[in-house]
Design goal:
The structure is a single chain. The chain is α/β, with parallel strands linked by helices. The protein folds into 2 domains: 321 residues, Aldolase class I (TIM Barrel); 106 residues, Alpha-Beta Plaits, CATH 3.30.70. It is built from 18 helices and 21 strands. An 8-stranded parallel barrel has the order 3-4-8-9-10-11-16-17, surrounded by 7 helices. It has a 4-stranded antiparallel beta sheet with strand order 6-7-15-12, with no helix packed on it. Strands 1-2 form a two-stranded antiparallel ribbon. β19 and β20 form a beta hairpin. α4 packs parallel to α6, α6 runs parallel beside α7 and α8 packs parallel to α9. The longest helix has 15 residues. The protein binds flavin mononucleotide (FMN). The site of flavin mononucleotide has 25 residues, from β7 and α10.
Amino acid sequence: MADLSLNFCGVQFKNPIVIASLETTNSPEVIRECVDAGAAGMIIKTLTDIEDMARLTQNSKYAILNERNELIKGKVNKNYVFYSRSGYSSTGFREWVPYMKELRQYANDQGSHLIGSAGGKTVQSWVDICRTIEDCGLPMVELNFGCPHPAMMPGVHGGSMIGQDPEVAAEVTARVCEAVKIPVVIKLTPDQSRLLDVARAVRDAGAAAVTATNRYTGFSVDIETGKPRLGGPAGIGGVWAKPLSLRWVHRIYNELGMPITGSNGIYDHRDVVEFIMTGAPLVQVGSVLMLKGIKYLPKIISGLEEFMDSHGYPDVASMTGVASRAAVKDYGEQFRKPRMHSEVNHESCRNPKCTICIQTCFYDALAQGPGKVASLSDNCIGCEMCTQTCPFDSTSMHTTTDEDRANATFFSIPENIFELGKFEKDFDRGIKLAKVKD
Ligand SMILES: Cc1cc2nc3c(=O)[nH]c(=O)nc-3n(C[C@H](O)[C@H](O)[C@H](O)COP(=O)(O)O)c2cc1C
């Protein structure tokens, strides 16, 4: 059986699944439930001294939307969009002290960890909150430089406002790192283009790791009423955000090489695997547990274990970053690869009933011939679209051995091919068939 345990910044986790800082970790009862369900760690909902960010949680608004941007009533599937607005923990950080001590022990007894999360009003408050967390015996603290909501709270400077400014982010990180001995993890905001600069700055200021990432800020419209959902801008996430989060995990892993915890877009164990393969060996599961309940957590953990067993990964380290290391460094690498073209297997192809490869070939390399798909391989640029779209796996890519074609760098678009009226009129039998006859 695969070994799910890992050491992250000196802390030993029994598996890679930690519960993200959010409503689920805003109460001792639910934190205990997470421990019982097998979580390797729970990050407390951000502790703060910003009154309005604590008050905002008492005024939270949530909307769960489907792919048609309609409210989901009932069971939530993988396409959900979580549109919501909430603040930080509404219980003051000093009031959390007895709970942190008790929950730390409860977690430790089951090989799990309670982790702190901070979001202060001033630099000194960041320090005070983190010291309090450390004094309660918690082994790690996350600084929330990613929350989208302070940016819309009058008079508040925090969350993503700090995470968008490398200098301020570095200053707060340095002050906290001077004040505590436990590893400090910086939760980054994806609402920016300078994320790598911020990650580099906080690393140089002493951060042990980064979390990539918190959620985006969005705006959602109910087209029936013409009104914005939840009254205006709010945080937005869901599995759709995963590739966007992974893009940053990938760049941090390859370019900065610092420890990463993954967040923003996990629904099931397959998403966990993607984060790990991109370079985040420890992942945070958040909103899906608000929607499906803590009882859903063991499914993610056992799914991960089964995946590792069936795919021959003995431990988390053997899976970490494999995809990022295999990625092209830049698109120029593509030019150095041998040229490919597609070929059609007429035995399994269902043409003329199915024409999906013809519809999706933008280069006029596949055309409707008499009763079957014709390949005009001179036109093929090897984009692989047909192999991605064919429902019967009837197209395949082959190395182009013809020297002239292999050396040709550019595909020249046949004249008139994109003149819409003509193209539409002649789609089935016209331009393409004419070329086949040629
Ligand atoms: C309702 C809600 C409240 C959240 N509150 C916090 C918070 O207090 N602190 C924090 O660091 N992140 C907070 N987050 C962000 C989550 O920790 C997590 O990074 C985000 O939801 C993306 O992960 P997911 O796709 O698994 O939900 C919150 C997210 C949601 C949906």
